[in-house]
Design a protein that fits this description.
This protein has helices spanning 10-33, 39-61, 64-69. It is mainly α.
């Protein structure tokens, strides 16, 4: 049984992880430094990127035969 390929290329996947880590680190730092709630934007971006990474993981773990039937 072959593993399916994901929705992201290897390079895109690495950049998504980098973007997630940067946004996840920036949110608490900006929350500490800024008095308004603008740090929530960084948190939302990190969550959206994490969702894409999880969807890519699910697509990669799905067997190739199951993908071709859909």
């Amino acid at each position: 049984m072959h593993q399916g390929s994901g929705i992201l290329s290897t390079r895109q996947r690495r950049l998504a992880w980098l973007g997630f880590l940067l946004a996840a680190v920036q949110a608490p730092v900006s929350a500490k430094l800024v008095s308004d709630g603008s740090w929530l934007f960084s948190l939302c971006v990190a969550l959206m990127v994490a969702t894409v990474i999880i969807a890519d993981d699910a697509a990669r773990r799905r067997p190739a035969e199951a993908r071709s039937r859909d």
